[in-house]
Amino acid sequence: MPTAFRFVLAIGFVPTLAAFAATAAAQPSALLVRGVTLIDGNGGVPVDDTTVVIEGDRIAAVGGADLPIPDGAEVIDGRRRYLVPGLMDMHVHLRGGGSRRDGGAVTVEQERAGLRGLHSYLYAGVTTIYDAGNRSAFIFQLRRKERADEIVAPRIFATGGTVASPNGHGGPYLVEAWPEDRAVLDEHIATGPDILKIGQDEHGWMMRPLINQLPVDLLERIIRHYHEQGIRSTIHVSTERTAWEAIYAGVDTLAHPIIQAPVSDAYLEMMAVRRVPTVSTLTIGEAASRLVEHPEHLDETLYRDTVESEEIARLKTEQRAREQENGRTGWLRTMTPIAQENLRRLHAAGKDIVVCGTDQFSGPAVHRELELLVEGGIPPADAIVIATRNAARFLGRLDEMGTVESGKLADLVILDADPTVDIDNLKRIVSVIKGGQIVDRSALDLPVNRGPL
């Protein structure tokens, strides 16, 4: 770690220094990746000997070896390399900000913890995240700083607090009636959410049976109110019945797949027509059973490189003991293959439906999510689409991101092995580019880069 970087970390001014350290080198006015094998995110066959021209934060051109080199461009040798769109995680709960109900200012320590989590995503090739529920002051402060280029981070889309029925799944914005509780929703809207997240689960992820749910007519009115403000919506569901209700109430996306039973043919037929983006979140269930049965997975290189050693120790001890005691491991072990098969069938019904999301807090989880999708029967090439193009569709931003096409944001990852052959090759990262800027992965505030202070 550079001496200056180490000094500023020690005195606590992490966000400003992190932004400087990861972009300190002078950036060229244009980049050109020449001779690379392109996997563009649309699901087609990889294209050898491709040239990609980047000007500013956008992809200016994609073509063959005869594309002209812009004046002053930095040329990246892409031979024997593979270029994919930046990965996306469409269900994150970034750690570090405290309870969603906490008031007061965000502390330096909280922001530093959040920034380290964001750095873990960038290091793992994830250039965009959607935080699906967090303390508003915390996540929106990080979002503001990312959009102002004050910190080095993936693109952040966020909900802040979630909306639910009193004693339901989520909060802190609790709604019982319309129009009586409209002010609660307007209070949330005033915080600036990119997406409305609703909690609607009678079982609380099978941990709190028979909790409250929003009546369907109220659910429909809430979604319409946010749509009137130009805000998309997603919803936590776990059963087919609640998914049907939410979809016909007008929700834009589902924050989870159906996990409690195999989906019906009728549901698949409906989804083949409606194509409601559905976030995979296999990792959240599998993580608990995997932690109990195989805690050694936390010793894998990507975890060691990006997750603090104290957090790994806590997971292996305190959290593992908690999971062993609460008795849900067996249910989660059963749930995961059901969800995998439901997602495989949903993907067969429409290639643009399934979306990558982990319900986790760090970059390595995205790679595990894709491994689980492939293990469930989805081809690696399709899994890449799920983590790129389909994620952009979830955000309603497919016109500007998610694939390698002229005019789109230059969020890219260069690899040294073919991920369409083995999804694990997505971990073999050579370079990460976000908004046309090469991310200095060696300057990110992560264990892999941190020497003694």
Short account of what is shown:
It contains 15 helices and 18 strands. The chain is α/β, with parallel strands linked by helices and 453 residues long.
Q: Please, could you describe this protein's structure?
A:
- The protein has 453 residues and is α/β, with parallel strands linked by helices.
- The protein folds into two domains: 3-86 and 405-449, Urease, subunit C, domain 1; 87-395, Metal-dependent hydrolases (TIM Barrel), CATH 3.20.20.
- It has helices at 3-11, 14-21, 108-123, 136-147, 182-189, 216-228, 240-248, 265-274, 282-293, 301-306, 309-326, 329-349, 364-375, 380-386, 389-395; strands spanning 30-38, 47-55, 58-63, 74-77, 82-85, 87-92, 126-131, 155-158, 162-164, 172-174, 195-199, 232-236, 253-254, 278-279, 354-355, 412-415, 429-434, 437-438.
- The strands form five sheets. Strands 1, 2, 3, 4, 5, 16, 17 and 18 form an eight-stranded mixed β-sheet that branches. A three-stranded parallel β-sheet has the order 6-7-8. A three-stranded parallel β-sheet has the order 11-12-13, covered by helices on one side.
- Strand 12 (232-236), helix 7 and strand 13 (253-254) form a beta-alpha-beta unit.
- The chain starts with a helix and ends in a 15-residue tail after the last strand.
- Mean pLDDT is 91; it is low at 1-21.
Strand and helix map with partners:
Blueprint: H1 3-11, H2 14-21, E1 30-38, E2 47-55, E3 58-63, E4 74-77, E5 82-85, E6 87-92, H3 108-123, E7 126-131, H4 136-147, E8 155-158, E9 162-164, E10 172-174, H5 182-189, E11 195-199, H6 216-228, E12 232-236, H7 240-248, E13 253-254, H8 265-274, E14 278-279, H9 282-293, H10 301-306, H11 309-326, H12 329-349, E15 354-355, H13 364-375, H14 380-386, H15 389-395, E16 412-415, E17 429-434, E18 437-438
Parallel strand pairs: 1-4, 1-5, 6-7, 7-8, 9-10, 11-12, 12-13, 14-15
Antiparallel strand pairs: 1-2, 2-3, 5-16, 16-17, 17-18
